[in-house]
Specification:
Helix content: 55-70%
Structural class: mainly alpha
Order of helices and strands: EEHHHHHHHHHHHH
Largest sheet: 2 strands, antiparallel
CATH class of one domain: Mainly Alpha
Shape: elongated
Main location: membrane
GO biological process, one term: adiponectin-activated signaling pathway
Protein name: Adiponectin receptor 2
CATH topology of one domain: Rhopdopsin 7-helix transmembrane proteins
Subcellular location: Membrane
Strand content: under 5%
Radius of gyration: 25 Å
GO molecular function: metal ion binding; signaling receptor activity
Number of helices: 12
Strand order of the largest sheet: 1-2
CATH architecture of one domain: Up-down Bundle
Number of strands: 2
Length: about 350
């Protein structure tokens, strides 16, 4: 027998008083349509009949008009909910106690939610703004006639690789944080894109630095480029596992990306030994490289440890939680790295294409 509103268990809702418990996505519904239909169950009573064959369809006479109307109501009236009532696939950080979006099986509702305050607002906007910034900047770098390239085609490819990695990373990130509350399937799909984007940013950041730092040593330059690309492909492959996105693998995720970034220690030591600390710091812009690494490592550490919300549960639900800080540090690190490799490009431009046997730069 179908359950009507009067038979639904009562739970404390986000507004005053009690409301019928909002069942989450089930194997029968798949997309979480039960979650948005609970108010209509109360309004329609016994007329709200679920398909007894369990296919997730509704009574024939109500299917078209009722779902359309309920979607309109849902998109305009949804409220943030506490962590405790989230379905398992939406639970990620149990130190963020309030302000979560409920499952919203409507892409339009998900995208409209970027203008509402909730736990993902900061995550969305930090990388949406960063994406637009690097997109515009990348177009300027790629097509500006004022860039003094020694090898225009090669250097545009090198900078293009960095900007492609940065824009894809930031684009995948803000899209994931926007739509991951749509359904479990959509959440899994976009989380894999998000993690792939992080890898693309790391690999794309290596390319211009290796190109300019080993400009006069093409053999080690090629070896390091191949190694970092292989490691990047490996990281993307690992990140496609469904388990990789679960809260239990938070430290593993941070470790994979941190390990990929730290693989740059080998070419960095090679460069320092070949050029000497003084020349590496001045001409090689090593200070900017170390600052970039510090920002990435700090962001990954805060993300893995869930600081500061670990020490202030419920106080960082909307602003200043670890994931937002991580996002800001990622954008800052990418900007710092761009400045550093731009200085390397200017140094190479001042020398022209000439190389000596005593330098790798």
């Amino acid at each position: 027998m179908p359950m009507i509103a009067s038979e639904l268990p009562l739970v404390a809702g986000p507004s005053k008083g009690l409301c019928p418990a909002m069942p989450g996505p089930t194997p029968e519904t798949g997309e979480g349509i039960e979650w948005q239909g609970w108010r209509w169950a109360k309004r329609l009573g016994p007329r709200w009949q679920h398909d007894p064959q369990g296919r997730g369809s509704w009574a024939p006479g109500l299917l078209g008009s009722l779902l359309a109307l309920s979607m309109q109501v849902w998109e305009g009236r949804w409220r943030v909910i506490p962590y405790d009532v989230l379905p398992d696939w939406l639970k990620d950080n149990d130190f963020l106690l309030h302000g979560h979006r409920p499952p919203m099986p409507s892409f339009r509702a998900c995208f409209r939610s970027i203008f509402r305050l909730h736990t993902e607002t900061g995550n969305i906007w930090t990388h949406l703004i960063g994406f637009l910034f690097f997109l515009v900047l990348g177009i300027g770098y790629m097509f500006s006639p004022n860039m003094n390239y020694v090898a225009p085609i090669q250097e545009r490819v090198v900078f293009g690789t960095f900007f492609l990695g940065a824009t894809l990373c930031l684009c995948f990130s803000w899209l994931f944080h926007t739509v991951y509350c749509h359904s479990e399937r959509v959440s899994r799909t976009f989380s894999k894109l998000d993690y792939s984007g992080i890898t693309l940013l790391i690999v794309g950041s290596f390319v211009p630095w290796l190109y300019y730092s080993f400009y006069c040593s093409p053999q080690p330059q090629l070896i390091y480029l191949v190694i970092v690309c292989v490691l990047g492909i490996t990281a993307i492959t690992v990140s496609q596992s469904d388990h990789f996105a679960t809260p239990q693998y938070r430290a593993v995720r941070a470790g994979v990306f941190l390990g990929l970034g730290l693989s740059g220690l080998v070419p960095t030591l090679h460069f320092l030994l070949a050029e000497g600390p003084g020349r590496a710091a001045s001409a090689g812009q090593m200070g900017w490289l170390f600052l970039m690494a510090l920002l990435y490592i700090l962001g990954a550490a805060l993300y893995a440890a869930r600081v500061p919300e670990r020490f202030f549960p419920g106080k960082c639900d909307i602003w200043f939680n670890s994931h937002q800080i991580f996002h800001v540090l990622v954008v800052a690190a990418a900007g710092v790295h761009l400045h550093g490799v731009s200085q390397l490009q200017a140094f190479r431009s001042s020398l022209g294409g000439a190389c000596t046997e005593s330098t790798v730069l």
